[in-house]
């Protein structure tokens, strides 16, 4: 066996040894049955009360779904909630009928019913699943889980770890606070919580060993919280963004994760045995907090120097857009509060009832794309903002005219991010969820090769629900 083959075989064994049984069960099968139902979870810590949640298979997050690239998958979702639901397989390029948008791509799954999702994942990588019906509350009460599509030729690491991060708005009693859909919040940053969990728990430490190489899959499953993670004493190397391999590179200081984004990093654990190193989220000025600590085992290092193996992942079969012949379309993000009643890009100063309506306080939209608002989760008869002939290359120029951040998610496709504010984006980055800062202008290209009506929306769920959503049609 070659050295590379030995490293891969060894890493596969170590990976399997550290994975929960829910992942291992899928090793011989691409078939799952997942039940959405009420449950209880201890989110805030061992000494805090349990929380009533909505969960997949009784756990928060739901069981990781592990699939194999290029092999058919069958996922049966049963709804035991007291309301309709669906499941969106976020980031996976699948047939439109399997996309999970109620009314637009499938009927909602009624209480007591089930729906069979069948697709063949073309791309390996880190994805996730969550509802697309009453999504603000259903995601905010716990319905989320990871999807890992295994590479045929995986990167050589000692362990493969998953951190599904989420925040919650909890009362002192442990209950999830009501108030989903607060109209004032919806016109600003959305529902940001007061507690953050790592794989469904408040994390004190994550145990590591000096000398090991870890692949860490980061998923931000929050409703609105943006995260910027700093790894004290470590230099994470980014190897994939939103499930798509990129040129391996170190980020300057911190890993930025908008809601719904995923970033895979490789960490060479070169800390001192027995020492702890903080992982801090400091995105919001003055509100930084410790997410967890990397707690080193006191045992001697497992190797003297970092593992000598390539970090690059095999590319997925994404069609390369032809920039010379691509259609170019502007999509301008508008709305939201800027202070003093000013609505960004939507008519300037407003007073009285007009302002209340535009903010969504009277049930109207707070946001728009190119002057048009689509509210809710999706429904039948949604007219497309743009229509593309199948196989055409497209460049979207996304212009954020608002005072707020927006992670813009395109269903059914992945986009090559070309430039941000006129500067080329390095490292060959493909994304399905592009985080846009206030006033950003981002150019992103893709081949419209997947027929159907596809959602494009902000993944700050309050923003989606109050208007920042549209449809792109591929015929």
Automatic annotation (TrEMBL):
One of its GO terms (molecular function) is hydroquinone:oxygen oxidoreductase activity. Its EC number is 1.10.3.2. Coiled coil: none annotated. The gene is cumA. The lineage of its organism: Bacteria, Pseudomonadati, Pseudomonadota, Alphaproteobacteria, Hyphomicrobiales. It is an enzyme of class 1 (oxidoreductase). Residues 47-152, 161-280, 381-474 form the Plastocyanin-like domain. Gene3D superfamilies: Cupredoxins - blue copper proteins. This is Multicopper oxidase protein. It comes from Rhizobium favelukesii. GO terms for cellular component: outer membrane-bounded periplasmic space. Keywords: Metal-binding, Oxidoreductase, Plasmid, Signal. SUPFAM superfamilies: Cupredoxins (SSF49503). Residues 1-26 form the signal peptide. The keyword Electron transport does not apply. InterPro entries: Cu-oxidase-like_N (IPR011707), Cu-oxidase_2nd (IPR001117), Cu-oxidase_C (IPR011706), Cu-oxidase_fam (IPR045087), Cu_oxidase_CS (IPR033138), Cu_oxidase_Cu_BS (IPR002355), Cupredoxin (IPR008972).
